[in-house]
């Protein structure tokens, strides 16, 4: 199990073509393609990866391979175990940029509560920071 930030359309119905996602992440956010719908980037000494996924209308997915997937409606950004303030800010900025580009939302309230319950207040604060940055823009 890993911790992640979830970004998706408000009801999971709006989809993005995999080619457009790839072009945006590489050209605009400086990610490198690791494999189909999986992208990584070095941030402040940590390797941050995200993946695009096809989810059902409840945000659930059960997929063994992303090969052949041409549209996605969910992006998950993997979070490192020990996250610093600088890295928090950088990841929040990436999540906000993606959410704005696709007119999606960052699933923040539910995630913040989940991280508090798991004893990860640092990650709960990430969602508060994302909300603050979103309100500034």
Strand-helix topology:
Elements: E1 4-8, E2 16-17, H1 18-29, E3 32-35, E4 38-43, E5 46-53, E6 71-72, E7 74-78, H2 85-102, E8 105-106, H3 108-117, H4 121-136
Helix pairs in contact: 2-4, 3-4
Description of the structure:
This protein is α+β, with helices and mostly antiparallel strands and 137 residues long. It is built from four helices and eight strands, in the order ββαβββββαβαα. The protein has helices spanning 18-29, 85-102, 108-117, 121-136, and strands at residues 4-8, 16-17, 32-35, 38-43, 46-53, 71-72, 74-78, 105-106. The strands form two sheets. It has a six-stranded antiparallel beta sheet, covered by helices on one side. Helix 2 packs across helix 4 (121-136) and helix 3 packs antiparallel against helix 4 (121-136). The model has no long low-confidence stretch (mean pLDDT 83).
Nearest-integer average pLDDT: 83
Per DSSP, the total helix count is 4
* Estimated radius of gyration: 14 Å
Structural class comes to: alpha+beta
**Approximately what portion of the residues adopt beta-strand conformation?**
15-25%
- The helix-strand sequence is EEHEEEEEHEHH
Give the number of DSSP strands: 8
Task: Specify the oligomeric state.
Answer: single chain
What would the principal axes of the Cα set say about the shape?
Answer: globular
How would you write the strand order of the largest sheet?
3-4-5-7-1-8
Quote the distance from N terminus to C terminus.
Answer: 33 Å
Which residue ranges are poorly predicted, with pLDDT under 50 across at least 5 consecutive positions? Answer: none
Let me know the largest β-sheet. Answer: 6 strands, antiparallel
Percentage of residues in helical conformation: 40-55%
């Amino acid at each position: 199990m890993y911790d992640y930030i979830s970004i998706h359309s408000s009801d999971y119905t709006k989809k993005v073509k995999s080619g457009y996602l790839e072009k945006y992440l590489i050209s605009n956010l400086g990610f490198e393609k690791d494999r189909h719908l999986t992208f990584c980037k070095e941030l402040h000494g940590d390797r941050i990866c995200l993946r695009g996924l096809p989810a059902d209308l409840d945000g659930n997915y059960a997929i063994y391979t992303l090969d052949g997937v041409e549209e996605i409606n969910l992006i998950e950004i993997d979070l490192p175990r020990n996250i610093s303030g600088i890295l928090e800010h950088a990841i929040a900025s990436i999540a906000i940029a993606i959410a704005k580009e696709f007119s999606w939302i960052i699933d923040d309230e539910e995630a913040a509560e989940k991280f508090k319950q798991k004893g990860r207040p640092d990650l709960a604060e990430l969602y508060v920071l994302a909300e603050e940055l979103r309100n500034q823009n």
